[in-house]
Design goal:
Layout lengths: L6 E5 L3 H12 L3 E5 L13 E3 L6 H9 L3 E4 L7 H4 L6 E2 L3 H7 L2 H10 L7 E4 L5 H8 L3 E5 L9 E4 L5 H7 L5 E5 L3 E11 L5 E3 L3 E6 L2 E7 L5 H18 L3 E10 L4 E7 L9 H4 L4 H10 L12 E8 L4 E3 L2 E4 L4 H5 L3 E5 L10 E9 L2 H14 L3
Parallel strand pairs: 1-2, 1-4, 2-3, 4-5
Antiparallel strand pairs: 6-9, 7-8, 7-9, 10-11, 10-12, 10-14, 12-13, 13-16, 14-15, 16-20, 17-18, 19-20
Helix pairs in contact: 1-10
Length: about 375
């Protein structure tokens, strides 16, 4: 066990690192952040902030030597520099988990090898025959960059033969994955934690609603049958066990129209769809991440309210005149409601489609809780 009073390191300095720092310091740990950009959200609340490129081996080694364990809040960290520090410090999860999850082709192949259901897919190398990959999967399909994609970036729907030429042009210089287009009832996610002793725990399944590929609402518990929720949790546990995970990860899934679960992607870190746990769970996902990587007993994931809805707040909620920022959201109604909890991330400036914060609403029934969440979101622009 890594006892309280020790130092945890986190690679990445965004809002996930910020909320991890709050959880770590509350449990008595110091938290060091390594982030290329200065004045990052996590750095505002961390014990110490290191600013240098992820490829700066000397600075990364200095960072590692001051930590008992290192985790991630961002999976798109170059893996090779981590090879040089794995003898200095415990990487939790190990870099090989990171390597799988940051490349869609490796991720899909890993899932397939481990008998985890995935969407039909084909790999295409940079400059390769994308049209052949599309023919293999069939139309309609979605073409995605193999590397470093999130929040809908680096992907294009191909609905007909007329779209193929545009896709070939867009992905001519990129490795790509062609995925079958899935008709689904809903999108789900499960956050799972596992410690070095093999103890595992999952959070209640979240139902996620996206707008323009960015998470808008997370609804917990998901409005699905209990058997489906149990199957989703078991898939997440199977993945964690197959990796030998030490830490926390999120598994995103599709529930298809015919009732099947397909894994879409994985993130070896805390997840946007788990933010509700800060205000509606005995143990938040951030505290659970700390517990998992330090060897503390995993905490209870029981909900403290029957229903919870998390709402993302993007830079679009600020007042704009064209491209000019002219005002802030109207926080009054949200802050006046005792059923809602607001979390802002301390980012330097709002931008459209940038995640600036979130709020979570709790209640006794999902219908009323979701209605209130929608109303409070609308009030930000009144």
């Amino acid at each position: 066990m890594i006892p309280p009073g020790s130092t945890i390191g986190v690679l990445g300095g965004g809002q996930l690192g910020r909320m991890l720092a709050h959880a770590a310091t509350r449990l008595g740990y110091r938290l060091h952040v390594y982030e290329p950009q200065e004045n990052c959200p996590a750095g505002e609340v961390a014990t110490r902030e290191f600013n240098s490129a992820y490829t700066d081996k000397e600075r990364l080694k200095e960072f590692a030597q001051g930590c008992a364990a290192i985790t991630y809040e961002f999976e798109n960290v170059p893996v090779k520099p981590l090879w040089a520090i794995e003898d200095e410090v415990q990487l939790r999860p190990h870099w090989d988990v990171l390597e799988v999850c940051q490349n869609r082709a490796r991720e899909k192949n890993w899932l397939k090898r481990n008998n985890i259901p995935v969407v039909p897919f084909a790999e295409v190398e940079a400059g390769g025959d994308l049209a052949a990959g599309i023919r293999t999967v069939g139309l309609p399909c979605v073409v995605k960059t193999a590397d470093f994609g999130y929040d809908g970036k680096g992907q294009l729907k191909v609905a007909s033969k007329a779209d193929v030429a545009a896709a070939q042009k867009a992905f001519a210089k990129s490795r790509a994955v062609v995925e079958g287009f899935i008709d689904f009832k809903c999108e789900l996610s499960v956050v799972v934690a596992r410690n070095a002793d093999g103890q595992m725990s999952t959070f209640p399944v979240a139902e996620n609603i996206h707008t323009k590929h960015i998470l808008d609402f997370s609804i917990v518990p998901a409005r699905i049958e209990s058997a489906v929720a149990e199957e989703a949790a078991q898939l997440a546990c199977n993945i964690a066990e197959a990796f030998g995970l030490v830490g926390l990860m999120a598994v995103e899934l599709f529930l298809t129209d015919d009732g099947k679960l397909l894994v879409n992607e994985m993130a070896p870190r805390t997840h946007n769809s788990g933010h509700w746990s800060l205000d509606a769970c005995v143990t938040s996902q951030f505290e659970q991440q700390v517990r998992a990587i330090t060897g503390l007993p995993l905490g209870s994931t029981e909900m403290t309210a029957p229903a919870a809805v998390m709402v993302n707040i993007l830079g679009d909620a600020w007042k704009w005149d064209g491209d000019a920022l002219v005002g802030s959201p109207d926080w009054a109604q949200l802050l006046a409601d005792p059923r809602a909890k607001l979390h802002l991330y301390g980012k330097s400036e709002p931008r459209r489609a940038r995640k600036m914060g979130h709020f979570t609403v709790t209640g006794r029934t999902m219908s009323k809780t979701l209605a209130l969440a929608r109303s409070l979101k609308a009030s930000l622009n009144d």
